[in-house]
Amino acid sequence: MKLKCVCSLFFLTTTILSCAQNNQTNQDNPKIELTINTAAFSKAIAQTDAQILDVRTAEEYNSGHIANALQADWTNQKEFVDRVAALDKSKPVYLYCLSGGRSGAAMQWMSKNGFTITYNLQGGMNAWKQANKPVEGKSNEAEITIASYNKIVSASEKMIVDFGAKWCPPCRKMQPVIDTLKQRNFNVLVIDGGAQTQLAKELGMSSLIEVHTHDELERALEISPEIIGVNSRNLKTLDVDPAAFAQLIPRIPESMVRVAESGISHRSEVEFAQEHGATAILVGEALVRSADLELAMRELRGHR
User: Fold this and answer.
1) What are the residue ranges of CATH 3.40.250.10 in the chain?
2) What is the pLDDT of residues 168-197, one digit of tens each?
3) In sequence order, what are the residues at sequence separation of 6 or more whose Cβ sits closer than 8 angstroms to the Cβ of residue 160?
4) Does the pTM of the predicted model rise above 0.70?
């Protein structure tokens, strides 16, 4: 079995905290938490008094958002708590982010903190744009057609294509690698994945749903994603435990792309992930720190 080595999965990489449908009820204070598809979300927010909340960063929001949406950055807890305090807890709140992870986590927090009805947009803005739903504040960057893209990449025998976004944390982490490749005269085509959503769709690119625990994996499987990444790094403690590969990857259907993430810097670690069913790996830090990128890639692939 060939193992695909992924240097980075830009802008599509998201940590899944909650993407699947979840309906929780408390006997004393009934609560509703639901993740709904684009059609249902669009129909629901058509009402004039809908409370729509974009939980992405301000920069993401300004690159294109749903009409009438408020913005509260989930990754900035103080800002988030301060801003949602202005919402009516007794009325439904419709949340979304880029792909559904942050808004799913925000939905759970809001339910625990007095909001009675919360809805999460399945697939987030990625799904919204792919469904050709209206977006306000959209980037003025012209769409790159698939014909133009093919012409650009065919002009070079070897080319690295970077689908990223300035507001994407994983993309920022990988930026030193991209800069180094350019400095070493690699031919790099940088594409704004946030603006070029149609191109990404035509190229068959899919969101990577990231999990770290059994519970997160179960929720991820409910929405049947094309790609699931198992992160061996606990994002709360930052500890790395490769045992996560052995525990979780075998539970992912073979029809899905199974990505092993974090803690991979040597061939033996690649082989360990492969032995437990990984069909791709995501490598970041090891390449960022490497003094010889080509040698590091060859070592990871088992080519000495």
Assistant:
1) 31-130
2) 656 767 788 888 888 888 899 999 876 787
3) 181, 186, 187, 188, 189
4) no
